[in-house]
Amino acid sequence: MKTIYTCFPGGRFKALTLSYDDGKVMDRRLVELFNRYGLKATFHLNSGLLGEKEGHRYPYVEAGEVRELYRGHEIACHTCTHPTLTRTPKPMILEEILEDRKKLEKLSGYPVIGMSYPNGVFSKEIKEAMRQCGICYARTTKDTGRFDLPEDYLEWNPTCRHTGPLMELTREFLDREYDQRLCLFYVWGHSYEFEQDQNWEQMEAFAREAGGRDEIWYASNLEIYDYMKAASELRFTADCSRVFNPSALDVWIKADGIVCQIPAGEMTELRGENRKPYYLDQEKRICYHPSTAGEGKMDPVLVHYREGRPPKTSGNPYYYLGEPIGDLRDNMYPQALPLAKEIKIEKRKVAGIPVRFYEKDSEEKGRPCLVFLHGGAFIGGSAETVEEPCRLLAELSGALVISVEYSLAPEAAFPRAIEECCAVLEEVWKDPEVIFDRGHLFLGGDSAGGNLALACLQEKEIRRKISGSILLYPVTDLSGKQELWSWKAESYRGGKGEMERHCASSLAGSEKQMKKLYVQGKAEGRDPRISPIYMKVPEDFPRTLLITAEYDYLRMQGEAFGRKLSDAGIPVRISRYGGMCHAFFDLLGHVEQAGRCVREMAEFLAEGRLSEK
């Protein structure tokens, strides 16, 4: 007999939702705070009071700002004028709700089917009136102090008001590891209370503590209602070997301990031995590739490999700007195993820069071309470090792969490496002896190489030649400010083992050293050429495959950059490899995930390949 449990999106068992009433102007500050920490809320508005100031201690937001102000959150009903419904005639109750719906739907542009009861009062008859008006859920003010899903969505009791034991319950919620039940933390209140009580710092502390955690699904009230409704409609065969999802939403379950994503409108076979990639969210922004160890654990093969090869101190006496450059470089040696069989390697110079060509057939005109920039914190690494992954990538994709041996810092400081990489791209494009389809030139790089690739893509003449970019755990922020993303050890799902904690934090603070050795004071920290997360995304930015490692300090900033591309309308696929640490691409042949990563890159290159005519 299978063990099957319903999960929240991404296989999670924890969810957090927030609910704020009335629509006062303090919502502006609250929305900004929620957005900063990745929280989602439902805002229950009195449409008949929007824009009013006189007679109210705190004014209401303007109707004209509603759509933009609450973008990314949910707008829901709170009646037009906030009457106490238990003292109101039924015809007026119906009018208050329906008029509120109509006005809010006109402002928001979508159906409004959520509600919170004014003053928290309701009755059996009022709940029936909700149903008649098309309201599917309604929040009460009866705090439970628990993390339960509602039995009756028209009587949805929250966990607590933010004026209650918020931080105590937050810690209890975060510490909870028992996943036999789905846990929903529901916080509610009024934004004007923070102004009234002068305690905005309380919500700031809550958002900082509860936001940005992998193990939590952040959702609006409506998203939770819709998702649980879809989950309840799954149709299993009698032996539970297959399941059909008749809804329009993907649903996640855990079958015999393995997370499975059940796509909308599809029949899915449940085979315990298969660990298929699945998305971590309904928006399908981040695709998670689980390791053989399961969710939230370092791959045991990787743990064994790393424990057998601790960082060495070679005693290399070379120092530069007070940093042990010799030892740092000596630790960036080739580790991948040779898996490709039919790839030619040629060392040559392009625009005076040493490069390596990896190819199967130098005469194939319809093949794509990838110019790849190796990582190494700007001061180390080489084309040799990534040679075996590049060879296998060329074999699997049929592409010409060109690995660039750009000049390293600190001897060659910013922007020398960028200039050299741009020169190689220009020459590769122009040289008729380099045979490939000019409509399918790709640019990629890992770690610092991803940073250099993004710097090149900010040059318009380079960008217009590139049809796609491949970024592996890229450095996207050297400012050291964490203004557009945040990192904390607690954000990593699982990750409580010694090796997980070590890998997740091993590069913490490395921005300072990289900036010191690479930039050398020649650019400000927010300069998008060294901190691409601050760039204004151009409309013609190429489609992108962005790969991250689950236990990598750079994952947070890399995925934040991927979301920035997505928000700008750029086609982007963010793939997170479970159980992996930084630079796992270099461990091809040692860990299975590295091979999967190369195959995904090959598929991305092949997607745009022209048929030979």
Q: Gist?
A:
The protein is of the alpha/beta class. The chain is built from 18 helices and 24 strands.
Task: List descriptors.
alpha/beta, six-stranded parallel sheet, disordered C terminus, ten-stranded mixed sheet, 613 residues, elongated
Structure write-up:
The chain is α/β, with parallel strands linked by helices and 613 residues long. It is built from 18 helices and 24 strands. It is elongated. Mean pLDDT is 92; it is low at 609-613.
Describe the secondary-structure layout.
Blueprint: E1 4-7, E2 14-22, H1 27-37, E3 41-45, H2 66-69, E4 74-77, H3 90-108, E5 114-116, H4 124-132, E6 137-139, E7 160-161, H5 166-175, E8 183-189, H6 192-197, H7 200-210, E9 216-218, H8 221-232, E10 235-236, E11 242-244, E12 251-255, E13 258-262, E14 267-269, E15 278-279, E16 286-289, H9 300-308, H10 325-330, E17 344-350, E18 353-359, E19 369-373, H11 387-397, E20 400-404, H12 416-430, E21 441-446, H13 448-456, H14 460-463, E22 468-472, H15 498-505, H16 510-519, E23 543-551, H17 555-567, E24 572-581, H18 592-607
Parallel strand pairs: 2-3, 2-8, 2-9, 3-4, 5-6, 7-8, 16-24, 19-20, 19-21, 21-22, 22-23, 23-24
Antiparallel strand pairs: 1-12, 10-11, 11-14, 12-13, 15-16, 17-18, 18-20
Helix pairs in contact: 3-4, 11-18, 12-13
